[in-house]
Write a structure and sequence with these properties.
The complex is a heterodimer of chains A (152) and B (281). With 152 residues, chain A is mostly helical. Chain A is built from 6 helices and 2 strands; from the N terminus they run H-E-E-H-H-H-H-H. Helix content of chain A is 70%, strand content 3%. The chains are: A mainly alpha (152), B alpha+beta (281).
Chain lengths: 152, 281
């Protein structure tokens, strides 16, 4: 609701932020979280239901991004926020290129230069901005739901 | 020490002394002394009074400050509440104006039956130009119904659930609308783009089109009713090496600010795909 009602109305050129992507990425990079894949499926299906895109495009995109996030988990040592930025950056590119590829296959005609400059880059910038507050919110949520055990 | 004088003599002596002092005072002989005593008394009284008032202020002012702060907080809360009410009323006025314009549009176009709807969301993908309405199949909305505002054409219903509908805007990159240019009486196809810009294609080189020509739906293809306003021609591209002319269109509807729309519910789109010729093997 927040995504379709508010975030999608805030545009930079033709790009817009993807709050669900930001939440999924920040949730996936929390070490203690075990339900990242579940939420990727739920988020992908929900977006697929609302969007004009076929359901498998956002589902595949979100699963891909969660996969990258889980792959990079603990690889970027003690720099989780940096890891978040990396995943958001490449995740946005991946999802948008996936969408552009699908639309091209379906007969869409557009220049890839326009897509990158008017949609992908602005969307990436907005996602990088959105993910900062989302990261701290999700981090607190993860700590609240999965408290860290302290050995005496 | 016991006095040797008799008691009556003592009394008489005291009375005489008092009377004497009174007589001296009445005679003005004690003026200097009384003035000095008065000054001392008044000075002392002033000093005492000022100190008392200072202490009293010290003890009572903090209580007043707290009271004032409380009052200030209450007033600030009241101001905030009133400001919220003002904003809500302004929003209601704006919505009323929009709805009033939509009602006027419906009255001036009585051939159609309309269902008013609010835009409650937009497509999450920046590649697509769709909006979500708060009416659905429960309200009689079906796929393919045209959507307009008091200004002009918005798009058509693409998908419907019980309580909501998704509308493909004419600015969507796969949208195609058959149009007619009002002045030149030329038919063409209006297409959207990923940037939301509208353009005309499939215009023969033989046709002369002018900027500011009005663009209306033609009704061909059965997707939209005829004569719905879309926009104006802004610029024309007519390169000799292209098969057709093309033109940029300025839409009359501001698609980024659409809040309320009308769905034309008595228009049934015609599916002409079975009539289209198929290539023979």
């Amino acid at each position: 609701m927040i995504q379709t009602g508010i975030i999608s109305r805030i545009n930079l050129l033709s790009g817009s932020a993807d709050l669900i992507l930001a939440i999924l990425v920040t949730w996936s990079i929390q070490e203690q979280v075990k339900t990242a894949w579940h939420w990727a499926v739920i988020g992908g299906l929900m977006v697929g239901f609302i969007s004009g895109l076929p359901w498998f495009i956002p589902l595949a995109g979100y699963l891909m991004v969660v996969g990258v996030a889980r792959l990079l988990l603990r690889r970027v040592w003690q720099a989780v926020l940096l890891e978040t930025f990396i995943v958001i950056f490449f995740g946005t590119f991946g999802i948008q290129l996936l969408t552009a590829g699908y639309l091209t296959l379906m007969g869409g005609t557009f220049k890839i230069g326009d897509v990158i400059s008017l949609i992908i880059l602005p969307s990436t910038l907005l996602n990088l901005l959105v993910v900062i507050p989302v990261y701290y919110l999700i981090k607190d949520l993860a700590l609240w739901l999965y408290p860290v055990e302290v050995n005496p | 020490m016991k006095s040797n004088l008799p008691r009556s003599l003592q009394t008489t002596l005291i009375i005489l002394i008092v009377v004497g002092i009174v007589m001296l005072a009445l005679g003005g002989y004690f003026g200097g002394i009384t003035n000095w005593l008065g000054q001392v008394t008044v000075g002392s009284q002033t000093w005492l009074s000022s100190r008392f008032l200072a202490i009293s202020d010290f003890l009572t002012v903090p209580r007043d400050m707290a009271s004032l702060r409380q009052t200030n907080i209450e007033l600030e809360a009241e101001v905030a509440q009133l400001q919220t009410q003002i904003i809500e009323l302004q929003q209601q006025v704006t919505q009323t104006e929009i709805l009033s314009a939509l009602v006027d549009f419906a009255r001036t176009n009585p051939e159609n039956t309309y269902k008013a709807a609010a835009v409650i969301g937009r497509d999450p993908s920046p590649f697509l130009r769709y909006v979500i309405l708060n009416v659905g199949s429960n309200d009689g909305i079906v796929r393919g119904m045209p959507v307009v505002t008091q200004q002009g054409l918005v798009g058509r219903v693409d998908a419907v659930v019980s309580g909501a509908a998704r509308v493909q805007l004419i600015t969507d990159q796969v949208s195609a609308v058959n149009i007619i240019l009002k002045n030149s009486k030329t038919e063409a196809i209006l297409t959207g783009s990923i940037t939301g810009d509208l353009s005309l294609g499939m215009i023969s080189h033989d046709v002369t089109i002018e900027p500011s020509d009005v663009v209306l739906t033609s009704g061909l293809g059965g997707d939209y009713p005829p004569n719905i306003l879309i926009g104006q021609v802004v610029s024309i591209s007519n390169p000799e090496y292209e098969l057709f002319q093309s033109a940029s269109i300025q839409p009359i509807v501001d698609f980024s600010r659409v809040e309320f729309v009308l769905v034309i519910i008595n228009f049934q789109p015609v599916d002409i795909s079975p009539l289209l010729p198929t290539p023979s093997p």
